[in-house]
Design a protein that fits this description.
The chain contains three helices and eight strands; from the N terminus they run E-H-E-E-E-H-E-H-E-E-E. By secondary structure, it is α+β, with helices and mostly antiparallel strands. Strands 1, 2, 3, 4, 5, 6, 7 and 8 form an eight-stranded mixed beta sheet that branches. Helix 2 crosses helix 3.
Length: 186
C-alpha cells in the first residue's frame, strides 16, 4: 500500500471511474462509495453541526449526480482512495461550470498528492471544454479551501466573486458556500 510518507502520487497512478448505476460491476463500486460516503459525512460533522446523515442515493435514482471514484494503482492492485461529485451545469454568472463537490480522500492517502493529481485531471477536462469551475465547501474547512485556491491559481483561474458570498441552495446546511472561478490566464 502506498502511504503519504513513501510515495508522491501522479496522474499516472490514478484511475477515475464514473459511477452511472448502482449495479455497475456487480454493485462493487457503489458499495465502496457507500462505505466511504459514511466516513465522509462523519468527518464533515466535525466542521458543521448542520451536516445530517443523508443516505447516498443510487445514481439511477438521482440522475443529476455523477459520482466519480478515485482508484489508486498500487503494487497490490487498485484500491479506493476517495470520490467526488462532478457535473456540468449552467450558471447565471457565466456559460457553464464544471461543478465539483463532496470531494473526499481517505485519511491514509492524504498529503500524498492524490488530491492535486485529481484536481489537475478535473481542471484539464474543464479547460478542454472551456468551462469555468465552481465548488462548494464548508466554511470551516480551510485546508480544503486553501488546496482548491492554490491549484486553481496555478492553472490561471481567478475567484469570480468575493470569497464564498454565495450561500448554498441547501437550506439545511448554512455553513456551506459556493466558490466560483473563471479562467483568466493561459
Amino acid at each position: 500500500m502506498i502511504t503519504a510518507n513513501k510515495t508522491y502520487i501522479t496522474k499516472e497512478n490514478i484511475e477515475l471511474q464514473w459511477l452511472k448505476d448502482s449495479k455497475q460491476d456487480n454493485g462493487f463500486p457503489f458499495k465502496a462509495l457507500e462505505s466511504n460516503y459514511k466516513d465522509y459525512v462523519d468527518e464533515l460533522k466535525s466542521f458543521s453541526k448542520h451536516v445530517n446523515d443523508n443516505k447516498l442515493l443510487a445514481p439511477e435514482n438521482n440522475p443529476e449526480t455523477c459520482y466519480t471514484l478515485i482508484w489508486l494503482h498500487t503494487d497490490e492492485g487498485f484500491c479506493l482512495a476517495g470520490f467526488f461529485f462532478y457535473g456540468i451545469y449552467p450558471n447565471a454568472m457565466s456559460k457553464h461550470d464544471a461543478y465539483i463537490g463532496e470531494f473526499y480522500i481517505r485519511p491514509e492517502y492524504r498529503e500524498s498528492g492524490i488530491a492535486t493529481a485529481v484536481f489537475d485531471m478535473i481542471i484539464d477536462s474543464a479547460e478542454s471544454h472551456r468551462l469555468d469551475i465552481s465548488y462548494f465547501c464548508l466554511n470551516d474547512n480551510k485546508k480544503a479551501q486553501r488546496l482548491w485556491d492554490r491549484i486553481l491559481l496555478i492553472h490561471g483561474y481567478e475567484d469570480r466573486l468575493s470569497r464564498g458570498n454565495i450561500f448554498t441552495a441547501l437550506a439545511e446546511n448554512p455553513d456551506c458556500r459556493f466558490y466560483y472561478w473563471v479562467k483568466t490566464k493561459e
